[in-house]
Write a structure and sequence with these properties.
Blueprint (H helix, E strand, L loop, with lengths): L1 E9 L16 H13 L6 E2 L8 E11 L5 H9 L6 E9 L11 E10 L14 E3 L5 H8 L4 E4 L14 E12 L2 E8 L6 H13 L5 H10 L14 E7 L8 H4 L1
Parallel strand pairs: 3-10, 5-6
Antiparallel strand pairs: 1-3, 1-4, 2-3, 5-9, 5-10, 7-8, 8-9
Amino acid sequence: MRTMLMWIAFDGTDFHGFQAQPGLRTVQSELEAALMRVLRHPVLVVSSGRTDAGVHAASMGISFATERSLAPDKLLHALVSRLPADLGILGLQEVQPDFHARRDAICKLYQYRIYASRTRPVAEFVQRYVYHCWRELDVDAMNHAAERFHGTHDFAAFAGAGCSRESTVRTVQHCNVERHFNEVRMNVIGDGFLYQQVRIMTGTLLEVGLGRWSPDDVTRIIEDRDRKRAGSTAPPQGLCLRWVRYPGERLRPPAESS
């Protein structure tokens, strides 16, 4: 058996999330169907994370095992034409036999885009990828509040309902808020995230940007570990997984590491 790492991108608007669900169109179901047609055996794909319905990915790592000896470039060529227009493959390579797309990930960057303007985002054709906030936001205050997320904390207050993780402790390596023309963007890098964590972090920073809360309130919310104290869950369409990083030695083909 060979283990392959596939890099994919997708527009999450018309998907019911990544994970396969009976009777629903998901990224996993589309990928596995295409792989089975090409490889001619059932394939189970493992992702670097499970995105919710409506969430996008610019570069997500996917691993799967196959007994076929098809070269990566030929497999890639065969798969491209079998995928829908809103799901694409960025690259494909053979990796270490025990490689796992989720467990081997070092860190991930998520970005949340807020269109802060009195005009609708359709004027710039970005309505599928942003959350529209009609009011002006205090970006400096949001950025100061974002710094409070840095470090290792118990993020229980930012875990969505239904979060099944045994531990809610996570490490945020970087979090900032920046303005890009009409958009306000939150970037967060971490070793892993709880269910809906980034969207709840965004909803909390929005309260700061609107002047309802202060950066010190964010610190108190983290310390209280009470979901009711944090902001609302921001809508999914503004969220995108930008990239995932893995240790270099885990990405080497078996022949190079022997």
